[in-house]
Amino acid sequence: MYPTLLAIHGIFRWAALILLLIATYRAWRGYTLGKIFSKGDNSTRHWTATVIQVQMVVGFVLYNYSPFAKSFWSDASVPGDGSMFFAIIHATMMFAAVIIVSIGSAMAKRRPTDHEKYKTMLTWFAIALLVILVAIPWPFSPFAQRPLIRL
Predict the structure, then answer these.
(1) Cα(93)–Cα(128) distance, rounded to whole angstroms?
(2) What is residue 19's predicted lDDT score, i.e. its pLDDT?
(3) For 35-69, what is each residue's pLDDT tens digit?
(4) What is the CA 127 to chain-centroid distance, rounded?
(5) CA 120, 126, 132, 135: dihedral to nearest 10 degrees?
(6) I need a labelling partner for 44 at 20 to 30 A (CA). Which of 22, 63, 101, 127 fits?
(7) pLDDT digit string (tens) for 82-119?
(8) Euclidean distance between CA atoms 12 and 52, whole angstroms
(9) In 3D, which of 83, 99, 95, 97 has the Cα closest to residue 129?
(10) CA 115 to chain centre
């Protein structure tokens, strides 16, 4: 079950990041150019939030099986093994990003004007994107190194 969840997580990880980049770009473009908030923009907003929320559920399940989290919580962690990063920092920041995207999506949906919808979406999604980029275990990170694509 764990390898299957890792594969699903890998797919949704990239889908969530790509959708968030697209949604943030569309929001920026619509806001700066004064565009009408189209059905496509609304679908992008909705599916970005949905995919990120599904990713969170998969992440919660994986967290329960994670050797890093188990190591950290059992006091068996070795300094520098990345267990603190994955057990606390990564999990907390990603959870915060999901909340930020969810709030931003809900608020943007309810805004009365197209300009306000784009502005709200741009603000909240850009903040979430920044949080996610900080929380990613980049190959050059001093906290935990992981390849961007695992085969």
Answers:
(1) 9
(2) 97
(3) 999 999 999 999 999 999 999 999 888 888 877 77
(4) 11
(5) -120
(6) 63
(7) 677 878 888 899 999 999 999 999 999 999 999 999 99
(8) 8
(9) 97
(10) 25
